[in-house]
Amino acid sequence: MLTIEKLEVGYEDFHLRVGGMRFGHGLHVVLGPNGGGKSSFMRGIIGYGGETIIGRDIRHEGGRVGHTGRFLSYLPQSTPPFRISVEEYIGLTAEAPDTMLRDELLRTFELAHLRRQTVEALSGGEFKRAQCAQIAMEQKAVIMLDEVEQGLDLKYQHRILKWMKDEAAKKTVIANMHDVPLAMTYADTVTMMRGGKVIAHGIGPGEVTSEMLTDCYSTPLTVEHHRGRMWVFHDAL
Fold first, then answer.
1. Does pLDDT of 237 surpass 90?
2. How would DSSP label each residue in the chain?
């Protein structure tokens, strides 16, 4: 269980203040507009970023923590590639080398044929899969991913979300996402943020309404359900 009792960060004219948030095992999707605070929320949790940490009380498994690195893996929106091989990159942040796990992850993320390719030569989607493999290699109890679906084609969006869902059966996975229908296909819970504030937390995908999304994104949206899937339409279209 990851608990955010209090988190307050700020920079320039932006201020984020949240509290009383709990994330157990499962895939927890955070939705919200650009500049709504989703990335600041994640960077505030790890205690590192461009923001100023004003107040922070993060707890894991009931105990208060200062440094989250021992139990939490974080994939930001963008990280620079390195001139090292894919197989070296995957194991770069792992505490203990595990070549069997590395080889398994190369197959899982369909990177085995690229294992000796340099990371900087990968396409955007290939690099995103290598980043996810690196996160998986760390084997931490909590995984946070910021806009993980960006740069992936439709096939790999679903492959990565399926991996996240499988991990969420035994871990806490928190993901900032922009693709609302894709998020609703896999999410166990949904949290919405706008203007640095949480406007909904821990609700089921089926509880998300047109009014809630319209309020979150400040644009008229309609939610419809068909064959167990959510569809989102802009009312002006």
1. no
2. -EEEEEEEEEETTEEEEE--EEE-SEEEEEE--TTSSHHHHHHHHHT-SSSEEEEEEEEETTEEES--TTTEEEE-S-----SSBHHHHHTTT-SS--HHHHHHHHHHTT-GGGTTSBGGGS-HHHHHHHHHHHHHHH--SEEEEESTTTT--HHHHHHHHHHHHHHHTTSEEEEE-S-HHHHHHH-SEEEEEETTEEEEEEE-GGG--HHHHHHHHTS-EEEEEETTEEEEEETT-
- Which residue is listed with tokens 């893996």? 73
Question: How many residues belong to the chain?
Answer: 237
Instruction: For residue range 162-201, list pLDDT tens digits in order.
Output: 999 999 999 999 999 999 999 999 999 999 999 999 999 9
Query: Which has the closest alpha carbon to 152: 205, 109, 90?
Result: 109
Amino acid in position 140:
K
Please check whether residue 222 is in contact with residue 232, taking contact to mean a CB–CB distance below 8 angstroms.
yes
Q: List the one residue out of 128, 133, 165, 168 whose CA is nearest residue 148.
A: 128
Amino acid letter, 150: Q
Would the pTM count as exceeding 0.90? yes
Tokens of 65: 């923590």
User: For residues 161 and 184, is the Cβ–Cβ distance under 8 A?
Assistant: no
Average pLDDT over residues 117-132: 94
pLDDT at 77: 86
Q: Which amino acid does the sequence have at 71?
A: F
Q: Record the tokens describing residue 68, joined without a space.
A: 């989250």
With a pLDDT cut of 90, the percent of the chain lying above it is: 76
